[in-house]
Amino acid sequence: MSLSDVLNALLLPGLDGTGELFGPLVAALAARGVSASALRYPTQECLSYDALVARVLSALPPAPFVLVGESFSGPIALRVARARPAGLQGVVLAASFVRRPVPRVLGPLARLGFSLPAPGIGLRWILAGRDAEPELIEGLQAALRQVSSKVLAHRLRQILSLDAREDFLACPVPLLYLAGSQDRLVSPRVGVRLQRRRPDLRLVTFPSPHLVLQRHAEGAADAIAEFARQDRSPEPA
Hints:
Layout: E1 8-12, H1 23-31, E2 35-38, H2 49-57, E3 65-70, H3 74-82, E4 88-94, H4 107-112, H5 120-128, H6 134-145, H7 149-160, H8 165-169, E5 175-180, H9 189-197, E6 202-206, H10 212-215, H11 217-229
Parallel strand pairs: 1-2, 1-3, 3-4, 4-5, 5-6
Helix pairs in contact: 1-11, 2-3, 5-6
């Protein structure tokens, strides 16, 4: 089966894990004939990457489909792909990583926890950009308020000790990486480095801060829909 048949996408959320920030992307994908749904992670339960992988595997959409792993969830998408679930045709990594990407200054947050509600100025500087619409900042704050500080700190500790390089290199399906050229959290050079390791990876860069899928939902939907319909089947041996 080729990627040209894919009409489903499962969206795996960033650190907040609520999936509530995907609204514009879901709508944009629907307009392009791609049915997308967002998975929600527990907001009060500390789960490891492996435990979240198990949850994703139990919630996969009808085949054929692509996985979209945003930031924190990129390694989850790669581990799911390595399990070779039936119908998986491609993985999209959005401002994501395979090794610890965050500045060392954020390390204390993993040990001490988060202070909520998160200030808008901090969210703009780190995630959304100075020119982000108030609605995006309010939505981000609302999503973070649903998640306990203990869970957020646990997820950050997971990131700090992460090494998913083997999962990335062993990914058995085509890869698309969506980068933000103004990303303060995950350097846009990450995508370039990953492409060097996997020349088959397609890299698309937007003039965006970390929240690429929110700030550039239409462009991201174009890239995902094109990727989902493109036949990248290997040449016969």
